[in-house]
Specification:
4% of the residues lie in helices and 51% in strands. The protein contains six helices and 50 strands. The strands form nine sheets. It has a 22-stranded antiparallel barrel. A six-stranded mixed sheet has the order 1-5-11-12-9-10. Strands 2-3-4 form a three-stranded antiparallel sheet, with no helix packed on it. A hairpin with a 7-residue loop joins strand 29 and strand 30 (535-539).
């Protein structure tokens, strides 16, 4: 019987390794070499040269767990942004963030990462754009525009990169300008949901030592989820009584004596509207000095992420006095219940607005008190973002074997997003958030190589200024808050890494890093009703520490090498960035890990088959976790607000943590005192262990046939996951298994002056849990297939491709947001896109 335990047994060490390249013959990552003879012959796997170690090294002789992917391969597998990268990287979970967290990518590698976009926390996975550090989860859903290749490094990184990375790093490398010849390309794509994309690039030599490269993209498509007018839809379905006295949200769908709407659609979610430009100048100032200057600009006005209600607890809704006061306005029997679940995951009644006008007094509500500041707010269902920056890089060859590299950059990000917490036309709770940051970073790096030594040493500096401005409107909790926080992150580091080759095939590596990080925060969260509820404080999370890496690798032959390594990593301490009342202001400890890895890389059968595998063990020494719970809402008098709930110990068994339950009718009759509860996040340090294995393969059994794929397994263990009251005894949001595979065959078609290449890709993700206390919202394991057929005309330099993503229309959810565990009556989820077809034409000049 096959079991995960056997999969990670010591017998696998013979196959352990890191990194595979999904590259066809002719694809290059930095550099490629043909087969050892250099003569024409069978199509074999290439020697891929990467720069992840800050030296040009062949992937198969680099003792790192790294996946490197060319831009051509990304296109073949229909991967267009960083959120899709996880589908081909073992043990990586990258997905678009929940609507509550705005526009970004939650990135996890080997079960470690960060899903919250708030500036209070540091990403677990670091992004680098042409060697320049990108510090945010916001805006990290990069379009892979005019890219040369991507490198995804697994495990802690710090002795070779500018900023310490706890879980891994993603290095995006753009195409460099070419001084030898002019070239250009234009690519047009159409598809389902009115998709229309334009991509274009131009390369111009401006002399013997100067060249520029420009590229741009415009993408537009309608969202795959429909927003419906609730009253219109109830009338269309023949159940107008369910709408009660609730008003229309859109005047053009009114059902009148002379007009009956054919559709109740008033908007969409999940669409795309992006424009981006990029320009790069390369100047070979002298034979030893090269200077690159880059600027980019992105404007994203895409719709909010698709989001829908998947369940409503009617008892919880009925127990909230504020909510009952609201629904009473719309007639007897009207309530927040199953009527707001559309029955179609690609439809929602969310309006991002409050149907109750400002200044209204609602009897029985502690929120609608007649204030002109309460009620009537309406937000757009889009999330606009501006993301622009510039950078410069100078590489000076001090000698033939020593290079000095200086990199500096500036970036500014500004984004606005809304979240309809209840997912309905009511206004139980809505948030509007404006988050931005501008930062400057710089790095000086000196690298050298010789017959016995390779070494890298560097200095890194980063300073930023960030802000979070949020309006929280919560009629459900009877509060309205205005948050305005300022962040001033500052990071300085020095690092060094040395590889020594005492014997011909033996290498020893040791590295160290000293970091000095701090993030002063000025926090202001004001309650409009009473200064007694204001939350105002300053805090300065800071840490100074030393991290290290050590490793040994041995080249058994020209085709096979093995390695073993150990490394530490950390993340800066933080604080509770979303306190709902002063009692919730708490510190959050930083993360600390020690990771071990054993790997082997091998080419076999005359380089027709490549196998790279690794096993790893991570000791998560300091692991702050968030536990969703509830506590009593404190009123202006400093006492719990009366209601019909009482606190009980949290089912997860964490000391001091509580949730609430509703008093029974018998308890109410007996005069048992009840109170109103409010959501709370508890932060606890729960050390853990991560064990896992990864395998990547690439095969060329026939000259025209390419087969590649990967499989990853990781399991997180920790005492908190074994609590007797915990139902899902596993890490939330992370699958045990990930896998992918692809196959393509290039048919030569002389009569068409080119080739036709069909390709099929398979992506697998194991079961994922989203709640500690129930399995109701576990996402079952699923497989998604993409298909593509490409015709390449060699004479005209034209490529025509047609295909489909999610070929078999598999339905699954990207995320679940169990708001019920925060005291709300509902649970939300984000449905993934259904099947989408596309047709693209690309012309090269």
């Amino acid at each position: 019987m096959f079991t995960p335990t056997r999969f990670i047994s010591p017998s696998l060490i013979a196959f352990v390794a890191a990194g595979a390249v999904y590259a066809q013959s002719g694809d290059t990552i930095a550099e490629s070499q043909a087969s050892s003879s250099g003569a024409a012959g069978p199509e074999v796997l290439q020697d891929i040269v990467i720069t992840a170690t800050r030296h040009k090294t062949e992937l198969q002789t680099t003792p790192l767990a790294i996946t490197a992917v060319t831009s051509e391969t990304l296109a073949e597998r229909s991967i267009t942004n960083t959120a899709d990268l996880a589908s081909i990287v073992p043990n990586a979970t990258f997905r678009v963030t929940q609507g509550a967290f705005g526009k970004g990518v939650s990135a996890f590698i080997r079960g470690i990462g960060q899903g919250d976009t708030n500036l209070a926390s540091e990403p677990g996975v670091a992004y680098y754009i042409d060697d320049v550090y990108y510090p945010l989860i916001f805006g990290s859903q990069f379009d892979l525009l005019d890219l040369d290749h991507v490198e995804v490094l697994r495990g802690p990184q710090g002795t070779l990169f500018g900023r310490n990375a706890l879980a891994g790093a993603v290095n995006l490398v753009s195409r460099a300008p070419d001084m030898n010849e002019s070239s250009a390309y234009v690519e047009l794509t159409t598809g389902r949901y009115d998709r229309f994309d334009v991509r274009a690039g131009l390369n111009l030599p401006l002399g013997d030592n100067l060249a520029v490269r420009f590229s741009g993209v415009a993408k537009k498509r309608t969202g795959y989820q429909e927003r419906l007018d609730f009253r219109c839809e109830m009338t269309r379905r023949g159940t107008p009584e369910l709408a009660g006295n609730f008003p229309y949200a859109e005047g053009l769908v009114l059902d009148t004596d002379n007009f009956t709407p054919e559709s109740c659609v008033i908007g969409h979610l999940g669409g795309e509207d992006v424009h981006a430009l990029r320009g790069t100048l390369l100047w070979q100032a002298t034979p030893r000095l090269a200077v690159t200057i880059t600027g980019d600009y992105l404007k994203d006005e895409s719709e909010n992420q698709a989001d829908q209600i998947v369940s409503i607890n009617e008892n919880t809704a009925k127990a909230n006095a504020n909510l009952q006061a609201i629904v009473a306005l719309y007639g007897p029997g009207f309530n927040y219940d199953q009527r707001f679940i559309t029955g179609n995951p690609y439809q929602t009644y969310a309006t991002y607005g409050d149907p109750i006008p400002a200044g209204t007094v609602v009897p029985g509500s502690t929120f609608y008190n007649g204030s002109i500041l309460r009620g009537g707010l309406r937000y757009q269902g889009i999330s606009p973002m501006l993301n622009w920056g510039y950078s410069a890089k100078a590489v000076f060859s001090v000698t033939d074997n020593i290079d000095l590299t200086i990199v500096g950059g500036y970036r500014k990000v500004d984004t606005v997003f809304s979240f309809d917490v209840d997912g309905s036309p009511l206004a139980i709770e809505n948030t509007r958030n404006n988050t931005g940051e501008d930062h400057t970073s710089g790095e000086v790096r000196l690298t050298g190589t010789s017959a016995r030594f390779d070494w890298t040493t560097g200095l890194f500096y980063y300073r930023g200024h960030g802000f979070v401005h949020t309006t929280l409107v919560s009629p459900y909790n009877g509060i309205q808050r205005y948050q305005n926080n300022i962040y001033e992150p500052d990071s300085k580091a020095v690092y060094a890494n040395v590889t020594v080759r005492p014997l011909e095939r033996l290498s020893l590596t040791v590295g160290g890093r000293y970091s000095d990080d701090e993030k002063p925060v000025s926090y202001s969260n004001l309650l409009d009703a009473s200064p007694a509820g204001d939350i105002v404080f300053t805090v300065n999370p800071a840490d100074k520490r030393f991290d290290w890496k050590a490793g040994v690798d041995y080249q058994f032959s020209d085709e096979t090498m093995a390695y073993v390594s150990a490394a530490t990593g950390f993340r800066l301490p933080s604080f509770n960035s979303r306190p709902l009342q002063p009692s919730q202001v708490t510190p959050v400890p930083g993360d600390e890990i020690l990771s071990y890895e054993v790997g082997v890389k091998t080419d076999m059968f005359d380089r027709r088959l490549r196998l790279n595998a690794d096993i790893f063990y991570t000791d998560y020494k300091t692991r702050p976790t968030t536990l969703s719970g509830q506590e009593y809402r404190i009123g202006p008098d400093g006492q719990p607000t009366p209601g019909q709930q009482v606190t009980i110990p949290h089912p997860a068994g964490v000391e001091g943590a509580t949730v609430c339950r509703t008093l029974t009718a018998e308890e109410i009759a007996a005069g048992v005192p009840g109170f109103t509860c409010i959501g709370r996040s508890y932060f606890v340090n729960t050390p853990g262990k991560v064990r896992g294995a990864e395998l990547e393969f690439d095969a060329r059994p026939l000259d025209a046939l390419a087969i590649n794929g990967s499989v990853g397994y990781s399991k997180f263990s920790s005492p908190d996951l074994e609590a007797p009251t915990r139902v899902n005894r596993r890490l939330l949001g992370i699958p045990y298994w990930t896998a992918s595979a692809g196959v393509q065959y290039a048919f030569q078609t002389p009569s068409l002056n080119g080739s036709i290449t069909p390709r099929l890709d398979w992506f697998y993700q194991g079961n994922i849990a989203y709640s500690a206390i129930t399995t109701a919202y576990n996402q079952p394991a699923y497989s998604v297939f993409n298909a593509r057929i490409t015709y390449t005309n060699d004479d005209g330099d034209i490529t025509v491709a047609a295909g489909a993503t999610n070929l078999f229309d598999k339905f699954y959810y990207r995320n679940f947001f169990t708001l019920a565990e925060l005291g709300f009556p509902n649970v939300q989820a984000q449905p993934a896109p259904p099947r989408e077809w596309f047709l693209s034409v690309k012309k090269r000049f």
